[in-house]
UniProtKB/TrEMBL annotation, chains A, B:
<keyword id="KW-0436">Ligase</keyword>
<dbReference type="GO" id="GO:0006433">
    <property type="term" value="P:prolyl-tRNA aminoacylation"/>
</dbReference>
<keyword id="KW-0963">Cytoplasm</keyword>
<dbReference type="InterPro" id="IPR002314">
    <property type="entry name" value="aa-tRNA-synt_IIb"/>
</dbReference>
<dbReference type="InterPro" id="IPR033730">
    <property type="entry name" value="ProRS_core_prok"/>
</dbReference>
<keyword id="KW-0030">Aminoacyl-tRNA synthetase</keyword>
<dbReference type="InterPro" id="IPR004154">
    <property type="entry name" value="Anticodon-bd"/>
</dbReference>
<dbReference type="Pfam" id="PF04073">
    <property type="entry name" value="tRNA_edit"/>
</dbReference>
<dbReference type="InterPro" id="IPR007214">
    <property type="entry name" value="YbaK/aa-tRNA-synth-assoc-dom"/>
</dbReference>
<dbReference type="InterPro" id="IPR023717">
    <property type="entry name" value="Pro-tRNA-Synthase_IIa_type1"/>
</dbReference>
<keyword id="KW-0648">Protein biosynthesis</keyword>
<dbReference type="GO" id="GO:0005524">
    <property type="term" value="F:ATP binding"/>
</dbReference>
<dbReference type="InterPro" id="IPR036621">
    <property type="entry name" value="Anticodon-bd_dom_sf"/>
</dbReference>
<dbReference type="InterPro" id="IPR002316">
    <property type="entry name" value="Pro-tRNA-ligase_IIa"/>
</dbReference>
<dbReference type="GO" id="GO:0005829">
    <property type="term" value="C:cytosol"/>
</dbReference>
<comment type="function">
    <text>Catalyzes the attachment of proline to tRNA(Pro) in a two-step reaction: proline is first activated by ATP to form Pro-AMP and then transferred to the acceptor end of tRNA(Pro). As ProRS can inadvertently accommodate and process non-cognate amino acids such as alanine and cysteine, to avoid such errors it has two additional distinct editing activities against alanine. One activity is designated as 'pretransfer' editing and involves the tRNA(Pro)-independent hydrolysis of activated Ala-AMP.</text>
</comment>
<keyword id="KW-0547">Nucleotide-binding</keyword>
Length: 567, 567
């Protein structure tokens, strides 16, 4: 490709609405353009990256035994009504009518569409297992689209769905996909973690998220370098502490102290000179209309998703101030676990606490030297606090490492949720009709592109991993008006192409500094700079990622790049 | 690929709603399934074919200097309002509102979207020319979807749009695309013709359609083997006949004959024993409220599209019976060109006619020996009759050949229609702001798949051209329970894969006849049949297209297939 003929509109300034690096850089470097809220034009450089991402996905999915299909984007309403999700999905799903007033949705996900296909074609255990995938547009009408490709309304996804005779086979395929996804993201050159994840609305038994590690990620995860445990903080379990031996022997006498207008944990901590770890935080939740009290150590937060896994209710939320007073008869900010009429649950973090501070149940007073067991009854110790870096691994006890990440893949064991609702059955070896057991497996293709940039960039621009870079090498003649420079550059350009590299030559009649800036911004892994020493047969290779520069003879450019690639 | 694990649901019966071979066979052979009216699931075999078609298109478009982009499928209404097409496009365009009540369309074509991108990024003549293309879904809400992929509501299209500094450069690119399309369809192994076409609603200066030749095609075309002229019959010109010398010397006396209840050309021909070629057919059209009479030779039909090119009105249609009587004062079926108060135009086919039959202008009477010039005045000779096989080539006079075809590609020189409406301008070398000159170029990707089947099938099934076949070779062990046969088949399967062929092995435990039927139905170009002679190291190669069979040693299977491929 010749830069002079390529449609690569680079920009100096970031757009005003771009908040994160990938959004800013993909626009500045000419990979995408905003068409409307949450809608992006993908420009030629972006298409090149997407094709490379898609190719890796296809090769690995095919290798894993999955088969590619293409289902319509227009989803007939009947199927969503059948699964019970037509009304559940809410405003995120775009609905419309055709000219005959029939209802359709723009597919946000395709469980219904694929289950409909498979139930019509598969009748026997002999036709199973089956894993079908597609790569294409998906639609979610986000209320506030943002972060560029990260949370767009129209995006490209790889979605796969598998069908099995039993749970065991579905689980086998689950781990097959786990391995496949690991290979996919590894081949893309991304630092990632597969973490245990909450199964959320989609239902099902267990699931993993594949997270690209990046400081700007919206998700948090923890992992253990010793035993390999890794989980999203929405799911990560606390190691249950032992109850200290002879804890009763340490108990001191409970005392009431005056704490005028001192309510929040930090205020109490400062006022009484007690660290938050020794203060009890007491929260009231409403679970389907019933109130429950939940105690956590003062420096800890309740993780909503984990909480909902423990208290499985239709409606789960924090109580309002009025509800607190109504259910406890105590003033907010001074809630006491003692003498409460509603049940008190306590997070694992409370187990080791002795002689702690808690509210006194009356305005402007706290209690010191409170002890669970002696002063109040814990109905049950539960695991609802958010796990943090440094906490003990629930598996092996080693300290956990905490990172931020971007979810780029998600695998689910679905079970029979959709096959039962939609009557997708097969006849087994004994002639018995059974619902198929399903799994589903997604990768956000456009999101991978954005996540790769979040993870790999610096002040000068993007630093593409080699495998998904729009070009492997950019050849930069510093002055195209000098014949020697131009000819040497063209020679290298041709040689690299012949050797199978994706190459672009910056043949524009522009100042060297301008070209260098664009090359850094676009983020092509290797720059071959052809300057004055071309007359001596010497050019420079710059490695975008490390900034290293090497002077090499023209004849050895290919060899040097191969060497730098580690083979 | 192993047939036993592949999702290839073949069927014995054609679906009831399938009218044409491609629809029947693509369903029966397991390439597609109907999801709803005009919506199809593409199954793994179909995806393989589409990928091959897309790859050829990409390679040739890239080679021609075009660059791939991906624009959203959700088109903001503002852009269509700006171009003036929001209301014009009618019910074929699917419209919907997002959660914020903003209007969108599902893109049926992308002139507006691409012009919006280019007008924002391109400011100078230095950035032109530019040819951008995409491959993706398009939507047309056909009132009556039919013929499977041929006229679906959701389909895959390659659409390209080019931008230029002037007409001359746009024309250069037009012919560049003409050559590119010719290469594309040739590489796909399809028999096709590029024909001059009407520019229709999309506007613009000239256009060509690329037609895949097939007896079942909806379109008609004519071409000349001598000079290369080729045109759709909607566009094809008649060679203008010379007025015969001394025609007046042949004139006979005009006579009125009683023709009771004899109205239609065939009836008159039979009643008077005169061939239709010697009878004048007189039609009345309404052009924007004005009536005109048009005469054609009795065996010819007026081509509506050509007629509209001559009489450019907003509303052009045949007159109703009431209108005929009102404007001519004559009864329908006995219309006479003589003494008419509305102008009489005559098609070229009328020029050589002498002493012909025409209506007498009164009920139940015709005239014999009528002659134009003597008996009535022709306002103008025009070219509105449909050209047929055997007619003279308008270029060189040689007889034309007529075929039916399926439109799979269309190239247009658009001019400045969209760039003017949407203010897509650039500054030229002299600092003058001008609208860009545009071209657009489409290929119906899913339609190519259907057209290939229409052209290439027999009673047993599909006969894929090698370049777009889902697999190149199918290896058929006639009995997988016999170890020798199974091992030989597996060995050939592996060898062919290693040599770069796309291969499927029919490893199903099924009767040979069943496997042969499926292989013929699916239409893979080469079948390698491994039977009893495997013990002697001999297998059979069957060529799907010709039905030829060759016995070859196992070691020479690759060589023989290469030889049959002509290399």
């Amino acid at each position: 490709m010749r830069f002079s003929r390529a449609f690569i509109p680079t920009m100096k300034e970031s757009p005003a609405d771009a908040e994160i690096p990938s959004h800013k850089l993909l626009i500045r470097a000419g990979f995408i353009r905003k068409k409307a809220s949450g809608l992006y034009d993908i420009l030629p450089l972006g298409v090149r990256v997407l094709h490379k991402i898609e190719r890796i996905i296809r090769e690995e999915m095919d290798r894993a035994g999955a088969q590619e299909v293409l289902l319509p984007i227009m989803h007939p309403a009947e199927l969503w009504i059948e699964s019970g999700r037509w009304d559940v999905y809410g405003k995120e799903m775009i609905k419309f009518k055709d000219r005959h007033e029939r209802d359709y949705a723009l597919g946000p996900t395709a469980e219904e569409m694929i289950t409909d296909l498979v139930r019509k074609e598969v009748k026997s255990y002999k036709d199973l297992p089956l894993n079908l995938y597609q790569i294409g547009r998906k639609f979610r009408d986000e209320i506030r689209p943002r972060f560029g490709l990260m949370r767009a309304r129209e995006f490209i996804m790889k979605d796969a769905y598998s069908f099995h005779v039993n749970d065991e086979d579905a689980e086998r395929e689950y781990w097959n996909m786990y391995e496949t996804y690991s290979r996919i993201f590894k081949r893309m050159g991304l630092e990632f973690k597969a973490v245990e994840a909450d199964t959320g609305e989609i239902g099902g038994k267990f699931s993993h998220e594949f997270m690209v590690i990046a400081d700007t990620g919206e998700s948090k995860l923890v992992y253990c370098e010793k035993c390999g445990y890794a989980a999203s903080t929405e799911k990560a379990a606390q190691r249950k502490p032992e109850v200290p031996e002879n804890r009763e022997s340490e108990f001191k006498e409970c005392q009431k102290v005056h704490t005028p207008n001192v309510k929040r944990i930090e205020e109490v901590s400062e006022y009484l000179s007690v660290p938050p770890e020794r203060i009890l935080k007491l929260l009231v939740y409403i679970v389907d209309g019933e109130a429950v009290a939940v105690a956590v150590r003062g420096d800890r937060e309740v993780e909503e998703t984990k909480f909902k896994q423990v208290f499985r209710g239709k409606e789960v939320r924090l109580a309002t101030d009025e509800e607190i007073e109504k259910f406890t008869g105590q003033p907010k900010g001074f809630l006491s676990p003692i003498g409460l009429s509603i049940p008190v649950y306590a997070d694992y973090s409370v187990i080791p606490m002795v002689n702690f501070v808690a509210g006194a149940g009356e305005k402007d007073y706290h209690l010191q030297n409170v002890n669970w067991g002696r002063d109040f009854v814990v109905k049950e110790f539960i695991d609802v606090a958010e796990v943090r870096g440094g906490d003990s691994c629930p598996n092996c006890g080693a300290p956990l490492i905490e990172k931020r990440g971007i979810e780029v893949g998600h695998i689910f064991k679905l079970g029979t949720k959709y096959s039962e609702a939609m009557n997708a059955t097969f006849v087994d070896e004994n002639g018995v009709e059974k619902p198929m057991v399903m799994g589903c497996y997604g990768i956000g293709v456009t999101r991978v592109m954005a996540a790769a940039v979040e993870q790999n960039h610096d002040d000068d621009g993007i630093i593409w991993p080699y495998e998904i870079a729009p070009f492997h090498v950019i050849v930069i003649p510093v002055n195209v008006k000098k014949e020697e420079i131009r000819n040497t550059a063209e020679e290298i350009y041709e040689t690299l192409q012949r050797e199978g590299f994706d190459v672009i030559i910056d043949d524009r009649n522009a100042r060297p500094g301008f070209k260098f800036k664009d090359a850094d911004l676009i983020g092509i892994p290797f720059q071959v700079i052809v300057g004055k020493k071309a007359s001596e047969g010497i050019v420079e290779i710059k490695v975008r990622k490390s900034g290293e520069r090497f002077e090499v003879p023209v004849k050895e450019v290919v060899k040097k790049i191969r060497e730098l690639l580690g083979g």
